[in-house]
């Protein structure tokens, strides 16, 4: 194994140009033309209890009216389409940026989910979707049988 000394002051110009292009494309550029990425998928946690599945979608900065949830053919769709406006003022100039946030996540629901009783809440940047199980899908507790 060879050890290579790293000198952060010396940067290959080709590598620097590639790095700048990648940063601009993915929204990490510095300067007046910078863009903020609005096309990524939110993180989702799903857990299961005896009575239900609980799905949590991390989507900070939104309002509950920004979401569109629907179930069609056993698939739960979570969609957001939001236009956001930001303005920044300085001494002699003004800049407006129109940003659009859009994503769609789809989840195949198991047959054990009662789609008529799905409930959703949005609080503190997390969309929580409760997917209750049908009665026949819930585990049956063990029964003690007395001998006569």
General description of the model:
The chain is mainly β and 148 residues long. It has a domain at 40-135: Immunoglobulin-like, CATH 2.60.40. The chain is 9% helix and 41% strand. The protein contains one helix and seven strands; from the N terminus they run αβββββββ. A four-stranded antiparallel β-sheet has the order 1-2-7-6, with no helix packed on it. A three-stranded antiparallel β-sheet has the order 3-4-5, with no helix packed on it. Strand 4 and strand 5 (94-108) form a beta hairpin. The longest helix has 13 residues, at 13-25. Mean pLDDT is 77; it is low at 28-39.
Brief overview, please?
The protein contains 1 helix and 7 strands. By secondary structure, it is mainly β. It is elongated and about 90 Å long.
Please give a handful of descriptors for the protein shown:
148 residues, Immunoglobulin-like, three-stranded antiparallel sheet, 1 helix
Report how far the terminal alpha carbons are from each other: 77 Å
Which percent range fits the helix content? under 10%
CATH architecture of the domain at 40-135: Sandwich
Tell me the radius of gyration: 25 Å
The major sheet is characterized as:
4 strands, antiparallel
Low-confidence stretches: 28-39
Strand order of the largest sheet: 1-2-7-6
Q: Could you report the average pLDDT, rounded to the nearest whole number?
A: 77
The CATH top-level class label of the domain at 40-135: Mainly Beta
Number of strands: 7
Shape: elongated
Summed up, the helix count is 1
- Structural class estimated from helices and strands: mainly beta
* Helix-strand sequence: HEEEEEEE
For this structure, the CATH topology of the domain at 40-135 is Immunoglobulin-like
Proportion of residues in β-strands:
35-45%
């Amino acid at each position: 194994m060879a050890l290579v000394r790293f000198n952060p002051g010396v940067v290959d110009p080709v590598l620097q140009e590639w790095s700048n292009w990648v940063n601009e494309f993915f929204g990490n550029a510095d300067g007046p033309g910078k863009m903020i990425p609005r096309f990524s998928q939110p993180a989702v946690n799903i857990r299961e209890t005896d009575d239900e599945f609980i799905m949590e979608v991390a989507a900070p900065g939104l309002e509950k009216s920004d979401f569109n949830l629907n179930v069609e053919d056993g698939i739960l769709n979570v969609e957001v389409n939001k236009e956001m406006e930001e303005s920044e003022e300085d001494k002699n100039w003004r800049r407006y940026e129109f940003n659009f946030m859009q994503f769609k996540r789809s989840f195949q629901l198991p047959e054990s989910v009662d789609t008529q009783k799905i409930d959703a809440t949005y609080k503190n940047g997390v969309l929580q979707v409760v997917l209750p199980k049908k009665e026949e899908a819930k585990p049956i507790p063990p029964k003690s049988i007395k001998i006569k």
